[in-house]
Amino acid sequence: MIDETAKKYLDLVKTKPVAFGLENGFDLLTDIHNEWLKLFLFSKEDVTLQAHRGSYKTTCLSILIALVIIVKPMITIIFIRKSDDDVKEIILQVGKLLKTDAFQELSYGLWGTPCELLKESAFEIDTNLKQNTKGSPQLLGIGSKSSMTGKHADLIITDDIINVDDRISKAHRERTKMVYQELQNIKNRGGRIINTGTPWHKEDTFKLMPNIQRFDCYSTGLIGEKELQGIRNTMSASLFAANYELKHIADSEAMFNNSRIDDGTNTEKIYNGVCHIDASYGGGDGTAFTILKDHEDGNIYVYGKLKQMHVDDCLSGFEAERKHYRAGTLYNETNGDKGYLNKKIQAPKKPYHEKMNKYIKISTHLKGVWSRVIFIQGTDKEYINQILDYTENASNDDAPDSLASLIRETITKKTEWGF
Q1: How many Å apart are CA 289 and CA 275, to the nearest integer?
Q2: CA–CA gap between residue 320 and residue 303 (Å, rounded)
Q3: Residue 82: left if φ>0, alpha if ψ -120 to 50, beta else—which one?
Q4: DSSP assignment of 206-239, as one string?
């Protein structure tokens, strides 16, 4: 027979679980988050929540995990994010929640004792409430790139295991799908999988996830129109549509698709290449830095950096990268700055006056060799993203412009001149 105190707390968990977040300072949570928590807590099937970026999905998951640890202490949980570092912050958050008054009162109300953390690390949590005898911790955090051999759990939660890597690389998309499929083998009989995240690519792992409930940026009401417009102005239409409107739009004008990204075994193939800076002197443009090495086997290895800052503020960092990768001649355009940058960069250097239309340059010189380009590990993801998003009307084109310029000044001219 459940006493009145326990019944009161169970009723609160069943009807308003979001209260345990509101009580702990998460005051931006709304009724919609309450519905998400109830879905996570009481669904009998695997479920998938696809919600826009900045919708507090992960906050809800930390509250969910803390509630399950106390309300269902016989349950073992595995929490999965893309990397180990991503996991740590959530395990830390759960540990903090369990120590708060709201969760301590819940524990005392249900079990007649406060919740004590007997084990609390960056990846595991066990409490005095634990009721399973399998030896598994109540909560185990794992990065999706880590081995899952021998792992088992009653509740598996994936959070943002699909990210920008899956957008820019087919190989990453296929690996994430393999990881997700493996979860069926580590889920205990009668267990569940909860998935949360935002889409990045029309062929990403969401294609495999069941019972998808979608909440776009308009339906949640969490982002005002002015703020939403500001976000829209910072990214391509296709990326905004995916991450905020939760849909994939056909960008018929996009000229680049699947990029090739090295796994880190060929970094030395960028050594002794040439480099280029596409400089920003303020405003909305960024500064792009490119190193390129053309090989006789047909592959073109590329290293790219993209900084949303004035060239003066990132030049020393680029020069350090240039030295690290043993790059030689640095090319730079003199049209806008009348030789200002050329005076500041180190030799060997080669300034040039730009005469070609940017769209024509990118659509011929870069497009023509795109299938040969391999980005080495460490290239900024936003550098690659900007190339994938490039169209004639793109508002941000520093990365494709830099790479296309360097290809024209080196590979194309070498071919045209016959040496």
Answers
A1: 7
A2: 13
A3: alpha
A4: GGG--SEEEE-HHHH--S-HHHHHHHHTTS-HHH
**CA–CA gap between residue 387 and residue 407 (Å, rounded):** 14
How far from 409 is each of 145, 274, 331, 369, 402, CA to CA, in Å? 39, 10, 8, 14, 11
What is residue 351's DSSP assignment? E
Residue 171: CB atoms within 10 A of its CB come to 15
Partners of 352 in the β-ladder: 333
- Is residue 124 within 8 A of residue 69, CB to CB? The reply is no
Instruction: Return averaged pLDDT per consecutive 10 residues of the chain, 419 residues in all.
Output: 75 94 94 97 95 95 97 96 91 96 93 94 94 86 87 95 88 93 92 94 92 94 90 78 82 74 94 94 86 96 95 94 96 84 91 89 91 94 89 84 95 56
Domains assigned to the chain: 4-223 (3.40.50.300), 267-417 (3.30.420.240)
pLDDT at 418: 41
- Strand ranges, E, within 26-170: 47-51, 77-81, 117-120, 124-127, 139-143, 153-159
CA–CA dist 75, 64 (Å, integer): 13
Pairwise CA distance, residues 36 & 28, whole Å: 14
d(CA 260, CA 374): 5
Write the CB contacts of 82 (distance below 8 Å, at least 6 apart in sequence).
143, 144, 145, 160, 161, 163, 165
* DSSP per-residue letters across 298-311: S-EEEEEEEESS-H
Question: Please, are residues 163 and 176 in contact by the beta-carbon 8 Å criterion?
Answer: no
310 contacts: CB under 8 Å, gap ≥ 6: 280, 281, 282, 287
Contact 361, 401 (CB under 8 A): yes
- Please tell me the predicted confidence (pLDDT) of residue 202: 84
